[in-house]
Amino acid sequence: MLLGMRIGGLTAVAVSAWLALSPAQPAPETSPLPAPSEAAPSLVLYRPPVGAEVVDSFRPPAHVGAPGNRGLEYDPELGQPVWASAGGEVIFAGQVALNRFVTVLHRDGLRTSYGYLGWIAVDEGDLVSPGQLLGTTSERFFFSVRNGDQYLDPAQVLSSGRVRLVPHSEPDGRGRLPAKQSIQTNLQPDR
Predict the structure, then answer these.
(1) Which of 52, 63, 94, 96 is a plausible cystine mate for 76, CB 3.0–4.6 Å?
(2) 88-108, pLDDT tens digit by residue?
(3) DSSP SS3 for 32
(4) Domains of the chain (ranges plus CATH)?
(5) 153: nearest Cα among 42, 86, 56, 65
(6) Pick from 78, 171, 70: which is nearest to 113 by CA?
(7) How far is C-alpha 116 from the chain's CA centre?
(8) What are phi and psi of 177, to 5 degrees?
(9) What is the pTM of this model?
(10) Under 8 Å between Cβ of 92 and 102
(11) Which helix H or strand E contains 79, and what residues bound it?
(12) pLDDT tens string 8-50
């Protein structure tokens, strides 16, 4: 090797000859990268789709077809804008019975549905960004979240804005912890 370094131009020749005469090393075993559909889902932050008061909370039905509320009911002003709670692809935009609905499939696999729209601003197949206009409200507005066929509580999925860390209080109520004890915190939305 020193000879190759001193000769300069012969270094490449010496290294090439050494590699050619060396016993072949098997390539290290590696597992292939997962296909995009098998990859872990990305974090998706969901925001409220409309600036209105929730008047009826999520009440999951006891079984398929049973009564309950599979989402959140809002009391909006007529014609209020409805925004995409997160980015995704519009997989349905149209009428169900006498009501207009939009459903968006998000990259984490969840589907959000926006119901009782007065007007629809998107078409099936459109890619929407977080906060993009989907349509406007009618006299009421319904928002639901599904994972497959399972309805989720939208209030648990929606981002609540800032999060405030609140120290866990000890029984004495002073919030003090003994030395060397780790601090436990609870996450609570800042309201």
Answers:
(1) 52
(2) 999 999 999 999 999 999 999
(3) coil
(4) 53-157 (2.70.70.10)
(5) 56
(6) 70
(7) 24
(8) -115, 145
(9) 0.62
(10) yes
(11) none
(12) 444 444 434 444 444 554 444 434 434 444 444 567 899 999 9
> Which phi and psi angles does 119 have, rounded to 5°?
-150, 140
pLDDT at 162 over 90: no
Question: Across residues 182-187, what is the average pLDDT?
Answer: 40
Please give the average per-residue pLDDT across 121-137, as a whole number: 97
| Residue 48, C-beta contacts closer than 8 angstroms, at least 6 positions apart | 85, 158
DSSP 81: E
Continuous segment of H or E residues that includes residue 87: none
Gap between the Cα atoms of 89 and 76, Å rounded: 25
Residue 1 vs residues 11, 22, 23, 25, 66: alpha-carbon distances, Å: 8, 15, 18, 21, 80
At 171, which amino acid appears?
P
User: Looking up tokens 């999951």, which residue turns up?
Assistant: 60
